[in-house]
Amino acid sequence: AFKAAVLIQRWYRRYVARLEMRRRCTWRIFQSIEYACEQDQIKLHNFFSYLMDHFTPSSSKERDFISRMFISGESFKEAELEKYCDYESMEVPDSYTGPRLSFPLLPDHATALLEAFKQKQQLHARYVLNLLHETRKHLKQLPNISHVSTCYSEEVTVCGDLHGQLDDLFLIFYKNGLPSPSKSYVFNGDFVDRGKQSLEILIVLFTFLLIYPKEVHLNRGNHEDHMVNLRYGFTKEVMQKYKVHGKKILKMIQNVFCWLPLATLIDQKVLIIHGGISDTTDLDMLEKIQRNKFISVLRGKKRKESNRNVEIQEINGENKVEADPARNKAALSLCPQPRPTEAPSMANKLEFSRWVRQTVQEQIEWCRRLVDISESEEEELTYSSVVSLTDLDGPCWTRQEEWKQILDILWSDPMPQEGCRVNTVRGGGCYFGPDVTGKILEKYNLQFLIRSHECKQEGYEFCHNRKVLTIFSASNYYEIGSNRGAYVKLGPDLVPHFVQYQANKTAHNLTMTQRQGFPVALISRVEESAFRALREKLFAHTSALISTFKAYDKDNTGRITLSNWATAVESVLHLGLPWRMLRPQLVRSTADGMLEYKSWLDDLAMEQRSQEHIQSSLLEVIYRNRSNLETIFRIIDRDHSGLISFEEFHQTWKLFSSHMNIELTDDGINDLVRSIDFNKDGNIDFNEFLEAFRLVKQSQ
């Protein structure tokens, strides 16, 4: 009996170990593919930024058009944005049965919205724009770093990424309660993209933010960025739900996103940021950055840098002359810095207060003239502008330094090794080690750091000796059953208490069938999904794989060793996966340890062709480039109409042709665009765009 017990125990341990290994491999596949996609997005954006930086427009009209196309959101000044998104002129028909909002908002409005969204109802565009307008007004008055105290509420609840999964938000509110004066929430960015109900999540969060401005706090995430939204679905979602007013809603959302605070501090001891930190993270600089200038964090701000340099030099009292000394001298002579009058005695408080107001107002007017802001474009004074103006004698940073600060806190990830290095896996931000964490915590007298940005199987994870906590609130992120969601509650003692959940009923039922370990049925389902995605990735690189396999097949036998297969696949895909462990799921076992790679690739092609009836070589190219093609299409489609106009195509082709040194007349471009417009409706839709790509590839 004793021997039998030991045998069963040994068998069970091996079984659990194998399950755990399968679970980890599945997780690595999902994460590697996700990060490779993010890297592609940043590379694509860098390519367009390079084109913009090296393109010389032939006219001011051409310059303005291309600027509006690729710098969406920045071309609207305050008054223009208000006029463009005029919600008051919209009429709500009597037939509308959804929730109605009136401002200031009350708790009943939030309850009505939650019930309406549970019933799959849609909020009228007038109310959406009105809500965005009020949210923007509120956010403009907030500091870059929000401060929360546990003295005024029993506890603070911190939620991580939601990514458009409204069911997770409903479950959080069901388990933890709605925001209220006694229940504070911090939502740590990435509210949108990937999921199908991103807009509803924004509406709910913004509603509670306006009802309980002291209890609800929102941080910006790396997906609160219109360039990221073009690729990951939020832009498409808004345009599908609001076909008439979608462009106005998107424009307002872009502007709201750039006003979201960058971080939150709880009791001056716990720092909450979306991504992470770097060895150059400076909270003092973050507090003073004009965050609204960074509409897309993916793009470093190079334009107007000369204006910024002039401003810095004048503030510091320097007279460094750049490319055009005469021009700089003239510009500075037109707007000389006002010399403040002598300060009155502090004894007369009323007189001293008037002197301060007058001096600050003079400095504001001088700065406006310096950066060429006319009085007609005057904006209300915001928190960040007050900070920057009251610190004129302090250090001045370049726009690139400010951009780097924001990029790091939104895109960075922790690593177990010491030091700080570039995050080549995501393509943005950095990897920071426990030594970097320790220095930042010591410098600012913090206890620990809470961040999100990474999906974790249990919904949360500690690292760096429990000094960094990752919290992720979107359950079933990759696939049903792939991960739990979680949120963390902090009381006055700042000891974290976690609540885990899975919003999907199917996953919940499967989990309950087996208390110990990870259920077999669930692992199999998630594993199957991961390997399906991996096979698609392999198929998309068929041509490159064949070339690499042939390099190992010196005798042209059509066969390579399984070890060479693993090495070749990694050299092509660069996913960092344990290919030797994954081999049994991807390659049929062979007696002699050799693989007939052509038949293996044919099997991959057959699997994909069963879903898409297209020639194999063309399908490979489309699989490999579809995400990039779709993103390029949305970038060119400046008005998000789902169609590329002839003018949009014309100007974009000028960018490409200048980069590739191809001379093409305007008539030649017109002939090209007409040939792509297969149905002759005067626009190019996405199917026509893909078809043109397919035909060009076929002709090659």
TrEMBL record:
Lineage top rank: taxon: Eukaryota
GO molecular function (one): Hsp90 protein binding
Keyword Manganese attributed: yes
UniProt keyword Zinc-finger, yes or no: no
Cofactor(s) the record lists: Mn(2+)
EC number(s) given by UniProt: 3.1.3.16
A Gene Ontology biological process term: negative regulation of MAPK cascade
Protein name: Serine/threonine-protein phosphatase
Species name: Phaetusa simplex
